[in-house]
Amino acid sequence: MPELPEMETYKKLLSERVINKQITKVLINREKSINVEPSLFTQEVLNRKINSIERRGKYLIFHLDSGKCFLLHLMLGGLMYVGKTEDDSPARTKQIIIHFNEEHLSFIGLRLGYLHLHSYKEINELLDKLGPNPLSPQFTINEFTGLTRQRRGILKTTLQNQAFLAGIGNCYTDEICFEARLLPTRKLNELSDEETNRLFSSIKNVLNFAIDSGGYIELPLFTGDQLTGGYNSLCKVYDRNGENCERCGVLIIKESISSKKTYYCSNCQK
Description:
This protein is of the alpha+beta class and about 270 residues long. It has helices at about 5-20, 40-45, 120-125, 140-150, 155-160, 170-180, 195-215, and strands at about 25-30, 50-55, 60-65, 70-75, 80-85, 95-100, 105-110, 115-120, 255, 260-265.
């Protein structure tokens, strides 16, 4: 599932390609992927332009010049692709295709994900319970320490709780725990001050590095895209079971923790 770095990468690259371009055609192949009747959806967005794109956690908000917005959550298996011709597109089922004259933005794999149409007020209400943005300059070690003292859960599940922090999922939980040298089964409220500081720094470092590297989703966003998916080969532990830990050489372990596949080094994560 795309997480914060993947959605930030999509936001950056899409902003370069679709901002201020007029929507000339909308094709909806799966009505369950939207929240209103297809005719109303088309009527509301046709001939409109996307003014800006905003990310909150794992969501993208496309601001239309009408004041309405698309709220996108890709969920498990969801992807996007921008093509210039009908042939310039992955051989995958596309639930929604939005055309901008010569270009088209395809939403792929939206079996659980969706592209909903809302007012910005409605979106603020829907996303009201999201936790802080971990990369916000306003998100300080003092705020993080206050949050951890209220949580008795383990790192693996708590870091993925979107009401705790917005945007972290299965992959980056493991990467953050590795960076912080902490086992994913550690409880937040039992961490020492030094471990809490280390965890806070690791959250910022791992997410920023993953964004700079293009996230781990491998499908390019468009032909010639050299950024998307660049982090996949740079993962330290995620999906690396049976390989040697780059810090200590011990084999990386894969386990199921709270029904989540989890990767870690049993030697240098304490």
